[in-house]
Amino acid sequence: MSSGIMQRTNITDSAIPDSVTPHPAVNLVWLAPFLLALAWFWANISAVKWLLSSFVEIPTLYKIVIGFLIVALVVRSIGNSVSAARPYGGYANEEDRPPGFSPNFVLRRDPLLLMLGAGICSIALQYIIDIKQITVLLFILGTYGLCGLLVDPNFWRKNLPVAGLLACILPFNSQLNSGLGLPARVLTAQVVEQLLSMLHVAAISSYDIIVLENGIAHVDVPCSGIKTLLVGTLFLLAATWLEGRKLSLRWLAVGAANLLMLMCANTARVAVLVLVSEVFQQPNLAQIMHVPLGIVGLVCACFVTWLMLQRVPKFQPEKTSGISAKPNSEILQNHPLAKPGIIAAVTVLAVLAQLSHVETSKMAIASLTLPEYIKSESIPLNPNEQKFFGNYPDTQTQKIRFVAGNLRGSMLTVASTSWQTYHAPELCFVASGIPVNRIEKKQLTPSVTARWLSLKNNQLSAAYWLQSAQLTTDNFMSRIGSDLTHKNHNWVLVSILFDSSLQAENHEVKEFASNVYTTVKQSLQGEINENQTGI
Questions:
Q1: 473 and 466 Cβ atoms separated by less than 8 Å
Q2: In angstroms, rounded to a whole number, what is the distance separating the alpha carbons of residues 492 and 466?
Q3: C-alpha dihedral (124, 125, 127, 128), degrees to nearest 10
Q4: Closest CA relative to residue 485, chosen from 128, 122, 121
Q5: 3-state SS class at 411
Q6: Rounded CA separation 272/266 (Å)
Q7: What percent of the chain has pLDDT over 90?
Q8: Kind and range of the H or E run holding 256
Q9: Residue 364 pLDDT > 70, yes or no?
Q10: Do 254 and 312 contact (CB within 8 A), yes or no?
Q11: Is 453 within 8 Å of 479 (Cβ atoms)?
Q12: How far apart are CA 441 and CA 435, in angstroms?
């Protein structure tokens, strides 16, 4: 017996068959998570590029906060490891083992749903309306879901709010004025307009401007509510993490109530500022109240949110036996095709994501051609216009001086496929030192509903509208909403400034607007009349 044992132990390594050596097995263990991670980052390559390019623009304060969160997460992980260890080495039980990493990933329900859900939502939003901040937010959350397949489930669930903090901080930095900022300001202005009308205060909102009978109020970037929503959301996530609250349906209800309170607080603040500044003619007082009102609304909303958060139960770790254990939340247990199937599903998402970035059509409208009776000449864009439109290389702009009978003035057309390239002409007029006294909604022709402006103490008049091959509107929210069903369709912003004060009912004005509308429509449809004189 003993000689048999000695003979067995004396077998040389070369006698071991290659099929049972550990090297191929180790490679296969690492191959699956590598392929999964590769497919995931391929599916989100646009978000990765945007995040890397925008990171240099993040303010220093944001970088400090991000660094603090990463350090806190590492310290907390080390602290858990030290406290779980026995005084003389080892751990009291398996669930006390510190969080670690395992290449043999486990298909747990919650991380898998977070990863796949974020990927599907990201691709769907890119097809519908592409807002990079939301895409990056979903990418970060989905990446944390991917990590949940490789780390201890209790550690993953407990620190999920940290992933939410990073997902909110990284995309929303200095680029708040674009993306969500624009529709948020437009929506805020329109809601305030409705509130003022309920108080019998005549007002009309356009883009992010509210014009009253005796003044104009600009809903600027701080009034959009995006920063308020961001800070309030960060507070909720930080409080959830520090107090160890469980992410559940009750927590989601608290989050929804928090967002609603923050939006209501911001809208009320803008309404109060408009009333104080323009109705009661106290602009200096409104300027003093601007920041304190925002802080009061934010603090009150956060305090009520914290009170509601106390009703959310605290996180209770589940009993497991290691990273590769099979807790109740694991799905598709012992299924041989489960992991290849997940890798294949993420690969399909990656292919769909790449297809969503294929440019279906470039901005290529025909040159505008006006009737012969309209004499025109091209003029250059001013420096501010050149700087703004220079950020959007696919945008086509034309600026002319015109003479049409008794009408004289200038016209700017901006053709683009993206609503983010537009801003209200009122802003250009105000920036150029031309005050806006009144804005009205006028039906210039049966096909053109435009915004009619009285400028510079009623010495000048202007009009503008947004036009596509199928639709014409004077409302920027309608233009933004069109991307939900008419993505990549060409739109043209037509802005006309007359050199004198005119009435929208003027026959020459109506005829001029009708000719411009027809010219733009022909340009969008590619129908060029060879007998007309080009600009």
A1: yes
A2: 6
A3: 120
A4: 128
A5: strand
A6: 10
A7: 14
A8: helix 249-274
A9: no
A10: yes
A11: no
A12: 18
